[in-house]
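Encode chain A's predicted structure.
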Amino acid sequence: MKKTLELLCGALSGSALFAIMALTFFDVLGRKFLSNSIPGSLELTELLMVIVIFGALPLVSARGEHVEFDSLDPYLPTWFRRAQALFVHLLCGAVLLALGWLMWKTGNQFLETGETTAQLKIPKAPFIWGMGLLCAVTGLVHLMMAGKPPVDRLEGEGVAL
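Encoded structure for chain A:
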């Protein structure tokens, strides 16, 4: 399951990031040498950034790479840290599942009203649905991690600085 998640979300985010890089490269070339930029490049970059961010969200959660404040961890008893981790994962899971559901509903509303981007007229609904789906996947990741013991990180390792 974890390998599939890493493969799918990694490919999605990586492809979108590569597309942003290529779009920016050709947009700058066009402006410099042809005095003409790619129409709608800003809109495309914004939509691709949505894919990068939400595509990476399940991976960041699965790897425990969110920013965390752990200065007090050495002073807290193990039972408290386990309870804290359980509470945090359950809360994050519930909030992300609810957010995914709300985004899915918003995507349906955008489809009904025909909401599009300003310049290129790209429908927004599929992007909102994708955001909702990836939030829900991230919520499920947190629920699966609930009950697992917190990971002790060495000084300077991962996000513990």
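The chain is about 70% helix and 0% strand.
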